[in-house]
Amino acid sequence: MMKRVEVAAGVIFRRDGRFLLGQRAPDTFYAGYWEFPGGKVEPGESPADALIRELDEELGIRVQGVRPWITREHRYEHAHVRLHFFEVAEWEGELHDHVHSALSWERVEAPEVGPMLPANGPILKALRLPRWMGITHAAEIGVQRQLAQLDAALAGGLRLVQVREPGMPMPELRAFAGEVVKRAHACGASVVVNGSVELAAEVGADGVHLPAAQLGALARRPELEWVGASCHTRAELERAAELGLDYAVLGAVQPTATHPGQPVLGWERFAELVRGLPMPVLALGGLRQNDVECARTAGAHGIAAIRASWDQS
């Protein structure tokens, strides 16, 4: 039986939003392939400590903070690896590479180097997932008001919208979802439709967002670019991972106006539930823009919100 090797890898960001990749040296497996910097976790060492040490040894940078992100496993012909990916939140120093043939700062939207090391390939899509998801509630506030708020949010940088309108009749929902897609795509934003693969495809949305109840009945991942799910338990999160979904939304982290009196997770429990998952997770429930740092420190990719996405006050 092949022994599993624990590896720590870092997504190192520059101030302009680009991230760092290194090209593997000629005397290594997969020579010439590109990867995220990092290395093996030594006995008695935590993955976070291993990454900080490796980045000092490989690149000569001093890391002040890392955020847990996602964990993926991959079987190579020579090793079974489990990669603990962290976002490198703070670092200082000048890069002096001691391991790779070359380094390159890449754009999240369209990396230009390749090929990627197989274990690292899925990470590129995860990095493309926006850090904030706006969830609609047009049935509550009115379609025209919601569309006006959508336009303002898109102008302000919102790049991921979930159309979630459980109380809206289908003809009205179809028209509303189509309008959201049109306006979002004009601004370079993506749209997922809650609960209906068919409607998502019909209106030209980028994907579907599945309620937790649909996870258990789903035999395989729908054939859309983006597929995510709402989750409330570790079992639901693991089912989303098993199906190969692109992301999950987990909550409620804090009390919400939508579900008053509902039990909440808090950040400590949120961090426990998302630890070791292979896909990014957005935090949901009573969160605002000033909660982003807490969310990402707890292992969240970002935040999903209803009211906070549209409140311009």
**What is the name of the CATH topology of the largest domain?**
TIM Barrel
Please state the CA-atom Rg, rounded to the nearest Å: 20 Å
Distance between the termini: 59 Å
| Strand-pairing-aware structural class | alpha/beta
CATH structural class of the largest domain: Alpha Beta
Architecture per CATH nomenclature, i.e. the level-2 architecture of the largest domain: Alpha-Beta Barrel
Main beta sheet strand tally, sense and closure:
8 strands, parallel, barrel
Describe this structure in words.
This protein is α/β, with parallel strands linked by helices and 313 residues long. The chain folds into two domains: 4-121, Nucleoside Triphosphate Pyrophosphohydrolase, CATH 3.90.79.10; 132-310, Alpha-Beta Barrel (TIM Barrel), CATH 3.20.20. 30% of the residues lie in helices and 28% in strands. It has eleven helices and 15 strands. The strands form three sheets. An eight-stranded parallel beta barrel has the order 8-9-10-11-12-13-14-15. Strand 10 (190-194), helix 6 (197-203) and strand 11 (207-210) form a beta-alpha-beta unit. Helix 4 (143-155) packs parallel to helix 5 (170-186). The radius of gyration is 20 Å and the shape is elongated. The N and C termini lie far apart (59 Å).
Protein topology:
Layout lengths: L3 E9 L6 E5 L10 E2 L2 E3 L6 H13 L2 E14 L4 E13 L9 E5 L14 H8 L3 E4 L2 H4 L1 H13 L4 E4 L6 H17 L3 E5 L2 H7 L3 E4 L1 H4 L10 E6 L2 H9 L4 E5 L14 H9 L6 E4 L7 H6 L4 E4 L1 H4 L3
Parallel strand pairs: 1-6, 8-9, 8-15, 9-10, 10-11, 11-12, 12-13, 13-14, 14-15
Antiparallel strand pairs: 1-4, 2-3, 2-7, 5-6
